[in-house]
Amino acid sequence: MEKPSLTVQLFTEATSDFETSQYRILAALKIISDDFQKNKIYPHLSHLVELYATLGNVLDRLQDARKKFPKRIKRIDFVNQVIEHEVVFVPGSDLTKTEDLIEWALPYIRAKIEEGRTIYEFASEEIKLQEVGIIPNYTDEGYLFVPDNERSRLLLFQYEVSVFESSTAKYRSLKTSFLKAINKGRAHRSPNAIKLNLISEHGVLPNPATYAFNTRLQFPFQETIFPITKRKLMQQLYDER
């Protein structure tokens, strides 16, 4: 059976059964909550943040569209000399259920975002970044070392930063390539020794920018540790410019 997932279409498509839509949304949030309980925050957290912003935008557009529908007099208050109007929807344009569903769901989504951010902030605080050796002026390429404590190993990656510019903004993306894993059960090797070994093995750059991450957390690597380290690395590289 396919697991329920949160998509914009779930909210914007015709909702003939409001309660069924609510159930599907709560079921999808339960799956996310279960992963958060296991300290797995990606890709859920970024997806929830994007979805929350998108739904807010959809809600604003629906409310703007509502103002453009024809109106009729609902009540006349002769005492206060106020005329109240109500929107008259043309056939097939009743978007009330979509509006109501989004308004109902947004607090639940916001609560899950806060839950994920709490885990993210804790993990980010517990993951420390260390510069390895002398950092050169050119830092768009280099190495990063990330611990996978669940499997007692250190993973070595090569990274490369790409820059994309538009007429209004500059965007950076981080590409990583896995090199190898070092079993932590072996004799301890310093980050600098590992860096020198990689230079002798690959020799692409004489002194590549190298960063080592340290943490005692035994959180899932792919869903939490690695995404956070990549974000911290991008912040470090951006601060250095």
Order of helices and strands: HHHEEHEEEEHEH
Amount of helix:
40-55%
Poorly predicted regions are none
Give the strand line-up of the largest sheet.
3-7-4-5-6
Average of the residue pLDDT scores: 84
Q: Sheet bearing the most strands, described? A: 5 strands, mixed
> In DSSP terms, counting alpha (H) and pi (I) runs of 4 or more, how many helices?
6
Looking at the structure, what is the overall shape? elongated
* N- to C-terminal distance: 49 Å
- Oligomeric status: single chain
Architecture blueprint of SSEs:
Layout: H1 8-12, H2 18-37, H3 44-68, E1 71-77, E2 82-87, H4 96-126, E3 128-131, E4 141-148, E5 153-165, E6 170-183, H5 191-202, E7 209-214, H6 221-240
Parallel strand pairs: 4-7
Antiparallel strand pairs: 1-2, 3-7, 4-5, 5-6
Verbal overview:
This protein has six helices and seven strands; from the N terminus they run H-H-H-E-E-H-E-E-E-E-H-E-H. By secondary structure, it is an alpha+beta fold. The strands form two sheets. It has a five-stranded mixed beta sheet. Strands 1-2 form a two-stranded antiparallel sheet. The longest helix is centred in the middle third of the chain and has 31 residues, at 96-126.
